[in-house]
Every structure is written in C-alpha cells, then in structure tokens.
Amino acid sequence: MAAGRSQAYVRGVTPTHSPATAADPGRSPTAPSGASSDTSGRSDAATAAVTRSAYRLRINGTEHELDLDNRASLLDVLRDRLDLTGSKKGCDHGQCGACTVLLDGRRANSCLVLAVAAQGREITTVEGLAGADGELHPVQQAFLDHDAYQCGYCTPGQICSAVAVLDEVANGWPSAVTRDPDAVELDRAEVRERMAGNICRCGAYANIVPAVLEAQRLTAGAAGGDGAVTR
Amino acid sequence: MTTLQDAPQQVAGVPRHRLEGGAKVSGAARYAAEYPLDGLVHAWPVLADIASGRITAVDEAAVTGMAGVLGVLWHGNAPRLQEPDTQMLNQLQDDVVHFRGEVVALVVATTPEQAREAAARLPVTFVARDHAVELREDDPDAYVPEEVNAGFPSVSEIGDPDGAFAASPVRFEATYATPGLHNNPMEMHATTAAYVDGLLTVYDSNQGGSGVQRSLAAALGLPPEHVRVVTEHIGGGFGSKGTARPNVVLAAMATMTHGVPVRLVLTRQHEFALVGYRTPTISTFRLGADRDGRLRSITHEVTVQTSRHEEFVEQAAVPTRHMYAAPDRRTRHHAVPLDVPIPSWMRAPGECPGMYALESAMDELAAELSLDPIELRIRNEPEVDPEEGTPFSSRHLVDCLRRGAELFGWDERAPRPRAMLDGRELVGLGVASSIYPAMVMPASASATATPDGRFRIAINATDIGTGGRTALAVLAAEVLGVGVDAVDLHIGHSDLPEAGVAGGSSGTSSWGWAVHKACRSLLDEIAGRGGRVDAPITVDASTADDIQARPELARFAFGAQFVEARVDVDTGEIRVPRILGVFAAGRIVNPITARSQFLGGMTMGLGMALMEHGEMDPAFGDYANHDLASYHVPVCADVRDMQAHWLDERDDDLNPMGTKGIGEIGIVGTAAAVTNAVFHATGIRVRSLPVLPEDMLLGTAR
Amino acid sequence: MREFAYGSAESVEQAVAMLDGDPDAMFLGGGTNLVDLMRLGVATPGRLVDISRLPATVEQNEDGALRIGAAVRNSDLAADPRVRRGYPVLSEALLAGASGQLRNLATSGGNLLQRTRCLYFQDVTKPCNKREPGSGCPAREGLHRDLAVLGHSEACIATHPSDMAVALTALDAHVVVTGPAGPGRIPMDEFHRLPGDDPTRDTVLRHGDLITAIELPAPSELSRNSGYRKARDRASFAFAIGSVATAITVVDGTVTDVRVVLGAVAHKPWRARVAEQAIIGGPASAHAFEAALDLELSAAQPFPDNAFKVPLVRNLAVGQLCRLAGVEMSVGSVGAGTDGAGR
Can you name one GO molecular function term for this protein (chain C) (predicted)? Predict the structure, then answer.
C-alpha cells in the first residue's frame, strides 16, 4: 500500500489484491454491492424455498420433536434448544473434538452435523452414558480416577471419544500406528493416536492415556471380555 | 497465637480428587454459555476488515429486516460507556478502527443462526489508513516504557555491563525470537447476560469475577452491587480471561438495550483478535564469562509489540534479573506500538518467552565452553537475589537440576551434539531451568460453622481448571481439623467475599491464606464460646494487612525440565518421547491436581517449542491462522512419557500454608529444554520459535 | 450461514434429479468440509441434497476389482480387510487423515471434493481467485508455507488437502460419476485439475455431477507392496506438509513397476511420472531413487517459505521406495542444509 494514502473498504465485498498498484485515493466509499446484489438476491430466492424442517431426533433414548431452521447444527440443537449442554463447542469446525457425540454408536463431531441430517440416528451424548441408577460409565469413572481433565470443557468430548475408541478396538479397526492390523490391541501409543482428535488445552493427555487404558480394563472385566463396551 | 506448625496436618498433602469431578465427567457442570434463561436471544459481533482507519458507514437497515434480527448496535447508537479501565471494554464508542478484527457492530437476533448470518451481511464501510503490524527490533517507533506489565521497572542496570562484557575472556551474543502465541482456552470467551429490575447478572467466562464486576460496573456507570458475576465453571483461560474482555461488556450493552437476556459466544476465529495473546518477542543476550563459565556480565535487551490502542508491555527480561549471578548486568524492555490486537497475559507472561531466550543462551554458552549445561548453571547459582540483594525465602534450583538429572538419566547424554543416531532418528537430550514468582494477592473469605457440624466457606475464587476449589476445601479442612466432606465450599459468585484473579499462580496462596485465616478465626470464635456451636457462627477475614506485613524477601518457585527430542533425518519432523520436570514450589496442597498443573504447563511449553505460531499477515494485519486446524497446539499423540516431580520444599516465609504456586512454572523452561535437546540431537541451533521441519531440512549442523 | 432448503435423496437418480437445474444446490455427504465452509461463508448453497443415506458398500467383482460406494465412510474403508491387504497405501492414507470422529463422518466421494485449506480461500474478508475470480492471490507474497511448489499458476498456488486422493492416484483408481450428461468414469489422475487460469474448479466435474463410486483395479503385486507416508507439524490430526504414496515391484534387483505420487505440493495429487519413468527398468537403489526424484523435482517452483517441501517430499519418497523395495537407505539430509543457522 502506498504511504499516506487511504483506501475504502466495504465489508461483504472481497477486496482485490494487486500489490503493484496502489488503490485510487480519491475513490469514494461505494455502495456495498456484494450485499445488495449477489448475496441478498440469492437470499430472496432462498427464503421463497422452505428453509426449516420439522423432524424428530432420538437422543439418549428419548425422542424430541423439533421444527427448526435447517442451518442449526446438531451441537447447537443439543446445547441451545434441548439444554443438553454436556456437549461442548470449542471450534465449531471439527478441529477440536469437544463436541464429540455418538451417532449410532460411532463418534462424530456434532458441530459438523446438521441436525436435520441426523434424523433416524441413535444419538448418545455424555449425558446418556451413565447408567439409569446414575452409576458412571467406566470411562467416566476412569477419567475421575486419573484426573484426566482440568477445566473439564473438553472432557465430555474426550469421554464420548474414548467410549467409541474401545468399541473400535474391539471391532478390530486399525489406526495409523497399528503394527499388525489383524491383531489390534490397545496400548499407550494406540490411545495417543486414537484420541488425537480431542484437543485438551489444559494438557491432561498424560492422564487421559492411562484413563482410557484403565477404562478398557474395567469394561473388559464387566463385559466378560466379549468386547461389548457401549451401554 | 497459633502458628502453622501447630495446625493439624492430616488432610493437606493427601491426594484428593476434584470436588466438581462428577459434574465435569457427566456433562452437568455448566459454563458461561450454558445457562438457559427465558427469552434468551443471541448476539454476534461484526469485526473490522481493516487494520487501521475509520468507519464511515454502518448500514443497519440492510439487515434489520432479516428474519429474527432485533437490532444492530454500533457506535452511532450503542449505550455510552464511562471511560473504562481497559480498552478491551471500550466497545462501540467511536468510529476509529485500531486493529483488524476489532468489533465494529453487534447484531442481536432470536437465534444464533440468524445473528451470525446478519452479522456476515451487515454492510460496514471503512476508510483505511496504512498500517504497521510487523515487529522489528529496529522499528523507529520503539521506545523504552517507564514500567512493564505487573509494575516492574522497564530498565535495571548494575555496574558496567558493557565494559565487563568487553573485558570477558569468553563472550557470547545471540538473538532469539518468539512468535505471537494465542491462549486458546477450549471454552471460548462467552457471556450470558440478563438485566432485570436494575440488576445486571452476567454468567461470564473469566478468571476473576470480582475484578470483572468492578470493571464492568465502572464501564456501564452502575454501582458494583448492581452487577453480579457468576463464574461457577470456567473452561480454561491461561491468562486470556484474567480481566474483563469485550464479550462481557457487549453482552451487557445488548441486554440493557433490548431488555431480554442475551448470550454472546465468541468464535474460535474471534479469539485470535479480541481476547489478548502473547506478544512476539525479540531477545538479544550478551553473556560475558570466565573460561570456567562464571558469568561476569549479563545483558538482556528485549523488544516486544504493543497495540497502539492500549499499552501492554510483556516483562520478558524480568526473570533474567533473578536467575544467575553476575556482578555487572542490564535488562531493558523496548516496546513497539503497532496496529495490532491488544496483547495481554498468557501463561507465565514475561518468564515464558524471557526464559526461553536466557536458557537457550546458557545452553549455547555451555556448548562453547564444552561444559555440561547443568554444571554451568550450578557455577552461576547466586547466594542472594542478584539484583535486589535480598535473600531468597527458599531457592532449590540446583536441587531440581540434580534430582532431575538423576531421574532422567542425564549421564547417558553424549557431551557433543549430533552424536546419537537411532535408526532414522537423531536423538538429543536438553535441559533448562525455570523460575516463577511466588505471588500473593489480597483476598477475603468467610467461614461459617453450623450446629450440624458442617462448615461453610465462601470466597469469590475462580476454578479455571487448576483444582483451586479442591485445594481450598483441603486447606479449610486442614485448619478446621475435619474431613473435606464436612466442608461446603462456595466460589465463583460475586456476592461472595471479594478475592483476586486466578492468575499469576497465586490463587491457592492468596485465596488459601484468606480461607486459612477465616478458619483460624472461626476456631477461635468457637473456642471463645466454649467450643459450642448452638447457632450458625460466621467470621470474615481479609489478608491485605498480613501481606503488607511480610518482610522483604525474594520469593520464587524454581524448576528444571529435561527433554529427549528425536528428529527424523528424512523429514525433519521433531517428536518428543520424554519430558521430565522437577519443581521446588513450596508445599504441594493436593498432589493429584498439582501434578496435572505441572503436566499441563509442560504440554503447553511443548507446543510453544514445536508448533504454536500466530502468523501475522503483513498485508492485512491479522493473525491469519486463526483456527485450531492451522494454529497447532499439541494433541494427545504429541505427549508421550511426561513426568512431573517435586521436591518436599518447606518455606515458612511465604504464607501460612507454605505454598508458592504451580500453574505457570511448568511452561517456563520447557520450550528451551526442547530446543536445547533439538540442538543436541542435530547440531542445528534454531533461535526462532517454533522449531519446524524446515529448520531441520534447511539448517546446517555445527 | 445462508438459509437453505434441505432434502434427502433415496436413490442416485433422485439425487441427480434434485440437483439438476438448480445452480444453487449442492450435495451434502458427511459435511465435514461443506458445513465447515458454509459456516465460514465460503460455500453458500441455497439447497442441500443429502446423499449420505445412499447405499454405502464396498464390493469386489469376480475379477477382483474393488468398487467403493461414494457414501462409504473413511473409517469403514480404512478398516476393510480387502483394502488393508490388497491396497495398504489406501488404508494408511485414510488413517493418516483427520481424526477418528471425522473419519466416521467423511465419505469417500466427499473426501475427493475437499477444498483447499489455503488461509486466504477460507477467509471471505480477503481476496482469493479460487473463491472470487479476479480478486487476486495474496498468498504468493503472503502466507504460503503450506501451499504448492509444483503446477501452480499465476492465479492460484493452492494445494489439495486430501490424503486419500494421493493414494488413489497411486492405485490407478477411477472415479465413477453420473449426472445430467449421463454416466462417466474418470481416471484419478485426470479427476483433479491444475489451477491454470480457472482455479475456481478443483475437479473436472460439472454442476450436478454426482460421484457414485471409486473403482480400484484388482489387487496386484504392485498394489500390495504399497504405502503412504505423511509429514506434518504435530504427531497426528494435522494436514500434510508433504506426503507420498508409493508402490513398487522389484524383480531380481530391477524395478519392473512403480508409482510415486506426491501430496500437499500441488493443486492435485502429483503423479511423479518423470521419476517413475526414470526408475522403471533400473536398479532398486537409494541412489537411483534419489536421482529420479531430483529429476522430477527440478520442475518445482517453490516460494520463499515453502522451499523445504522439495527436500521433504524427495526424502519421503526415497525413504518409502527403499523400504518397500527392501534396499538400504542413504544418509538423511537433516543438518546438511543451506542457510547456516535455520531461520
């Protein structure tokens, strides 16, 4: 940018990048063309279409009737509409894992799932892991016992993720560090790799790894060693 | 008067799991954005697209017709604020843009989807000025401020450091750089605010509700008692939530304007501009030494950036004042004002980047002298504080180094770098020292005994994940001579007795002192009533005078980190299979949560060494890698064998509990220990963080 | 995020019909990139056609060829024993990508259609020729450490982020599509484009085209002796700073067939044909592989902050070829560098 010159910018209009040429200093602020023509024009067309849906979600064994904006993510529906605030928002882009829930028993980032697209799935959140009597899931208990958390914000996602990891291992799914894909066993290196999608900024990893291994031991005992870990 | 030594000791030091653990693992613990209020609506900030200039128009009419939109706040219509105590709170008051990403408007709408889309579409027109956003040591605008963060003088000088350097037989000089670093607590800054009958309640994600209450009340022109701040559970802060941030004042303005409860949750992207970050630093060291390694002269000149909007100068040269003996010495801070987001506290401000540089320089000096790096540090261990001349209340750095060497297997280390190859990996071992002040801040607490034999302890402390809540219960039980289960601890609410921030590693010492004193007084009160509690008895305590009465001493925690680094000879990828820290941090109240604090600090230090890097985009003026996919922090796979140990340190000159603070010292030396290990592995010395594969692939071994 | 209509397709035919004629509509698979981009304002569809419920099976023909349904999730594909044994490079590439929870969502078809992670493309407040044709490319003079060193253009220096696509290119896979213009079968190496002067298009697909399957030729000696190696800034859950998919067949010390595909260096998986030609028929040795890669990479045009990618992918490829060929590797290159003391 040339020294001493001013340049007009309008939000919503992508600025051009021409490093060799200075912007015209005399150019007066223009109307926000991006907002008035392109995007809002399309918005009118879109509002003519139906942009909300009525549907049911099955969460922790309970059916919920919803009628919502299609834009709502599963995470936001859980947190803002259903007061299931155990699932956390740490990035809203699938980059941290704090929102991890189980969809049909498999872990998934609920921030990237549109709620409307989760119809018909069996959704399990951290609130649905404990037994009916309130007894903690072995993974939850192991996290307590190993102090595998500090601020607790990533913890529900870590726990849901770990529950699924135990299932994945029981099902023989390999990971990037698996040496023999035909004999998958959970060890420290496997836990570290498999839990890598759940960021903990407090840095509880050194405690999370033994917690997950301990949970596997507990569940293997409880389930008679048949590998069934999800309640 | 009873002294600490007489107090029952059976509770403290016994491992105790977190009181709120069950709530955290079951998802029941509520954080700031998780309070369901009737009629709640959502606010979304609109950020400046320019780094410097003015707003010329905000076309609110373009979005007010959108479904769900309740209104747009901007400088033309926002409630007027009193002059706030920080520019972080000076929101929507004028048309000036101080940095890219500053809030220029706030959209309020019924749902978060509507608010976000309206914010994206709001037309705002700017006139941009040239901006300067890159930190340079030779910036002509650089100045030496009067004082730096935490009130330290900017400059200290003893003797003739330049002359002593010139006269030294061994002279070492090098410059080290650290990048902008972003706190990135997992819970983004968030506020749920409601204004009912003249009472403003904010459920806010911060590290100290009493301070936020004061700042917010002052900014809004409300009496403090009309502002209530709730901080029951906080999803990490690492300094970025130490004082009020834009989210809380914006949410308050929105709820006071619209008369309905408002929730505002910053996005991860917003965090990189709005809530503070660690400034980049450029440290130049000159070390003059005898041939046996004894330092004659230390000079540390550090250049940091500050925002033109608000001065914040990180005290990066301050730790150098207290570490090593040398008769002649100088430290000096230079600040460069730029059109950048306002820097602020991040875990161990000052110590963290400063000690990376000092401990790198010491490692380099040891290599030049062919001296073991631990031995070099031992030879320069001071008798008293090297600048103040005051005695240390306790200083066990050498013990940490020796104990760590033993636990880590330091004697297996080859004396020369680039001497250990294992398959396709070069292996190196590194060490660095750590220091962090043992601070204490005034606090007040109340203690109540009830006839059922239970005790209620109340203090507006904040547990941001440190284990502070549990530690206070343990301390109270210790003084009262009861089990922890008999104590009901109430924290995280501004109606409780006022206490300081969860920061400066001072929480347990500061709050604990107040709790300790209140419990002592309560026991005295009960004793005065013949030991009977027929009706609830409450006593209040404040520690302001006790802190004033302490003698002048140098009070610090010390530590040493040991690291094994492995560098892939084909890719230059660096992995760290082992980190071991030994700390001398006073009495450890709760070994379980203390260990977690040390481990967490070292994990963040690992990230600082090898991956964390806020990338300033010079053309646009923002930290461009503003998400967790491009701003890398360590993941589970990065942390392998990590151990925290501590010495059984007894220090009676701190506070009644003998605690020093543990939240920050874990990070302090870690980055240097990692990069020293990388040098030992490869012979490549990289003086700029983070050390990346390209430094290994393109660098030359020495 | 712009408001949009939502519909779920029960069949491929229905999916294509739902999109046909609506230039504002997009298919929604696992959503891991599309929802991400919609939230950023980069993608602004007015209608989503959910294809994640279409049949998701992996079928092996009588001749051994593998047909991977487009909706098959990355995690299922990586764990499939037929993939792990017959095409280890594919399983390894999938497992090197993203995280466990993302692989459960991400589909095979969607993985190929990921957009670049270039910081400028993802930030709608900045220029980007890929997102906004003609607005310019600030990456050339700005932040480009993660961007292309091969095949880039004046208009665009983006890289393609997929690990899976790199492996599929090494396996001579075909992408099976259907659309308004009828069915088609596209070789992987022709599926993604170089940016040229139209970086808005990542692939040769036209609006309304739907990926229905990915086909792999029957497992061979070559495909069984294959592997994927990825370098990244942390130990897991990061995009590649360089990667390589290789497969090699050696008979009596002579290379009879080879595939070398480089990832994270170009707008598409970079099939190193020059290197392959140089290697085939020659001895299986570190020296020969190094010479071949050097020849290939002599075409590289790196930028100041991504020049390291050239030695990085060279070393990755040479190391991986040596390992698969069972020959000794040469001395690594760390510390033999060029600039004195790092940055």
Answer: oxidoreductase activity
Element (H, E) at B510: helix B507-528
State pTM to two decimals: 0.96
Tell me, yes or no, whether A134 and A220 share the same domain: yes
Whether A151 is covered by a domain: the verdict is: yes
User: How long a stretch of residues is chain C?
Assistant: 343
Compare all CA atoms of chain A with the CA of C104 and give the residue at the minimum distance: A108
Q: For residue B693, give the nearest of B619, B647, B632, B629 by alpha carbon.
A: B632
CB A125 within 8 A of CB A60: yes
Q: Which of A63, A98, A128 corresponds to the end of one domain?
A: A128
- Taking an 8 Å cut-off on Cβ atoms, the answer to whether C143 and B682 are in contact is no
Which among B571, B688, B699 has the least Cβ separation from residue C312? B571
Q: Which residues does chain B have with pLDDT short of 50?
A: 1-11
**3-class secondary structure, B331:** strand
Alpha-carbon distance C300 to C266, whole Å? 10
**Ordered domains of chain C (ranges, CATH):** 1-53 (3.30.43.10), 222-325 (3.30.390.50)
| Statement to judge: residues A73 and A100 lie in one domain | yes
Tens of each residue's pLDDT in chain A, 231 residues: 333 445 677 776 777 765 443 333 333 333 333 333 333 333 444 445 799 999 999 999 999 999 999 999 999 999 999 999 999 999 999 999 999 999 999 999 999 999 999 999 999 999 999 998 999 999 999 999 999 999 999 999 999 999 999 999 999 999 999 999 889 999 999 999 999 999 999 999 999 999 999 999 998 865 443 433 343
Hey, of C104, C121, C230, C243, which one would you mutate to test binding to chain A, going by the most A CBs within 10 A of its CB?
C104
pLDDT tens across C232-246, in order? 999 999 999 999 999
Note whether B603 contacts A: Cβ–Cβ < 8 A. yes
Domains parsed from chain B with CATH numbers: 4-29+441-542 (3.30.365.10)
Same domain, A79 and A138: no
pLDDT in tens, B306-326: 999 999 999 999 999 999 999
Q: Which of A128, A147, A163 lies at the terminal end of a domain, its last residue? A: A128
Structure-block tokens of residue B121: 């579409």
Task: Please tell me whether residues A124 and A200 are part of one structural domain.
Answer: no
Q: Give yes or no: residues A152 and A188 share one domain.
A: yes
Report the b/e string of A44-75 with b at 16+ CB within 10 A: eebeebebbbebebebbeeebebebbbbbbbb
Q: Give me the CATH number covering residue A123.
A: 3.10.20.30
Q: Are residues A142 and A92 in the same domain?
A: no
Residues 118-137 of A with CB under 8 A from C: none
Q: Which residues of A touch C1 (CB under 8 A)?
A: 71
Number of structural domains (chain A) is: 2
Instruction: Inspect the interface and report whether the beta carbons of C135 and A14 lie closer than 8 Å.
Output: yes
pLDDT averaged over every residue in chain B: 96
Contacts of A17 in chain C (CB under 8 A): 126-127, 135-138
A98 to chain B: nearest residue by CA? B186
Kindly provide the b/e burial profile for residues B372-398, where b requires at least 16 CB atoms within 10 angstroms of the residue's own CB. Answer: bbbebbebbebeebbbeeeebbbbbbb
Catalytic residues of B: 664
CB contact under 8 A, A192 and B637: yes
Per-residue confidence (pLDDT) for residue A12, from 0 to 100: 64
Taking the mean position of all CA atoms in its chain, how far away is CA B249? Answer: 22
Measuring CA to CA, which residue among C188, C160, C310 is closest to residue C259? Answer: C188
Domain membership of residue A78 as a residue range: 51-128
Measured between CB atoms, does C2 come within 8 Å of chain B? yes
Q: What is the CATH number of the domain that holds A208?
A: 1.10.150.120
Asked whether residue A76 is assigned to any structural domain, the reply reads yes
CB contact under 8 A, A192 and C125: no
Q: Is residue A222 domain-shared with residue A148, that is, in the same domain?
A: yes
Check CB contact of A22 with chain C, cutoff 8 Å.
Answer: no
- Biggest alpha carbon–alpha carbon distance for chain C: 63
Any domain includes A44: no
**Mind listing the pLDDT tens digit for each residue in C192-216?**
999 999 999 999 999 999 999 999 9
Q: What is the mean pLDDT of residues C264-289?
A: 98
Q: Do B26 and A130 touch (CB under 8 A)?
A: yes
**Any domain includes A198:** yes
Express each pLDDT in B221-231 by its tens digit: 999 999 999 99
Q: Do A174 and C95 touch (CB under 8 A)?
A: yes
If asked whether residues A109 and A149 sit together in one domain, one would say: no
